[in-house]
Amino acid sequence: MAHASAHPATNTGVDNRKLLMWLFLASECLFFGGLIGTYLLYRGRHAVPCEDGTISACVFPIDKVVNGVKYEGLFDIPFTSISAFVLLMSSVTMVLALAALQRNDRRGSQIWLLATALLGMTFLAGQAFEFTEFYHAGLHLDTNLFGTTFFVLTGFHGAHVSVGVIILLSLFVMGWRGRLSHENALNVELAGLYWHFVDIVWIVIFTLVYLIQT
Amino acid sequence: MLTIAMLAGGVKGFFENPEYLLGIPLAAVGVLGVLLAISALAPFELRWPEPVQYEPEQLVEPEEGHPSPATYIQVGIILAVVTAIEVAFYYIDIAQGVLLGVLLTLSLLKFVLVVLWFMHLRFDSRILSVLFTGGMALAGALFIVVLATLGANLV
Fold it and tell me: Which of A15, A89, B100, B152 has its CB surrounded by the most CB atoms within 10 Å?
C-alpha cells in the first residue's frame, strides 16, 4: 500500500517483502489452527487409566480434582480480560505508530512504538504470572493432556509476542538513531502486520480457551 | 545473593519459590550497576547515541483513502467495548448454545475489525486478501478434519 511505489515494480503490484509477510501470516494461521484444534480436542481430558481399565484420553469432571488439579475455576477471567484488553490496545498504538511515520511524524512514531512494546511486555508479565499461578495450582506441562495443550498453545503465542516486542524495540532504536522515516515506513508496516496477527490470534484464544470452557 | 539463589535453584525452584521473582529486579539493578561502573572506569568515552532532532515542517500528507488516526482510535474503542460485552456475557446466566453463538460472533467481529482496519486489508491489494483468506480456509479445513477424525475416537 503506502510506499510500494518506492520499490521496484513487481508482477503483483505489491512489494515482495509485504507479500512474503502475508504468506508467512497465512502459514501461521495453519500453525495456530493446529494448536487450537489440538487444545479443543484435549480440553478437560487426561491420558491416565480410565475407570474401565484402559489408557486413553478420557474426560474428567470439571468440578472434581483429577491429578491434583480442579479444572473449574482455574482460569482467572477478570485478570485475563485485562491482559486481552492490553494486547488489543497495543494494536491501536501500533497502527498509530505506522500512521505517524507515514506522515513523517517520527517523534510521534517513536512514542507509539515504545508504547506498543511496553503494552506487549505488560501482556507477557501477565502471562508469566498466570503460568506461575497454574503451576502452584498443580497444573504442569505434563500433568494431563489439558495442561500439555494449554501450555503449548499459550506458550507459543507468548513466544510470538516476545519476538514482536524485540522487533518493536529494534525499530525504536532505529528511529532513535534517525534511521526511520516515511520513506522506509514499510519496515514498521511489516512489524505492524506481525503484531496485529499476534493480536488476532489472542482474540481467538481468549474466546475459545478462556470464555468458552465447556 | 537472591539472584544467585534463583539461578542455583533452577527453573523448578524458581516456580516453587515465588520470592525468587524478586531476583529479576535485583538482577536488573545489578546489570545497570555494572554498566555504570564500566562507563565510569572505561579509558574511552562511552555515551548513548544522540537522538535525532526532527523538523516539524517535514511532515507530509498521508495517502488518500487511508484512515486517519481518529478513525483508528474509534475502531480501538469499538474493540474495547466488544471485549467488555464478551466478558459481560460470560457472567450472564444464559443457555450454553446462545452463549456460544454470541461469543463466537463477537470474537469474529473483533477479528474482522483488526484485519480490515489495522492490517489494512480493506485498502490493500486483493492478492493479499486472497493469500490470507486461503491460509484461514486451510486452517479451518485442518481444524474440522482433526476434530472430525480424532474427536470421534475420543468421545
Answer: A15
Give the 3-state secondary structure of residue B66.
coil
Q: Residue B75 and residue B69: Cα distance in Å, rounded?
A: 10
> How close, in Å, is residue B113 to chain A by CA atoms?
10
CB proximity list for A31: less than 8 A, separation 6 or greater: A156
- H helix or E strand, kind and range, residue A87: helix A77-102
Largest Cα span, chain A: 68
Output the CA torsion A154→A34→A68→B99 (10° steps). 80
Query: What digits encode the pLDDT tens for the residues A33-48?
Result: 889 988 888 877 766 6
How confident is the model over A102-148, as pLDDT tens digits? 998 999 999 999 999 999 999 999 999 999 998 888 888 887 788 88
CA distance B79 to A85: 9
Contact A105 B59 (CB under 8 A): yes
Residue carrying C-alpha cell 497444573 = A139
For chain B, the structural domain boundaries read: 2-41, 67-138
The whole-angstrom separation of Cα B149 and Cα B155 is 11
Quickly count: other Cβ atoms within 10 Å of residue A49's Cβ: 11
Domains and CATH numbers, chain A: 4-211 (1.20.120.80)
Q: What pairs with residue A47 in β-bridges? A: A57
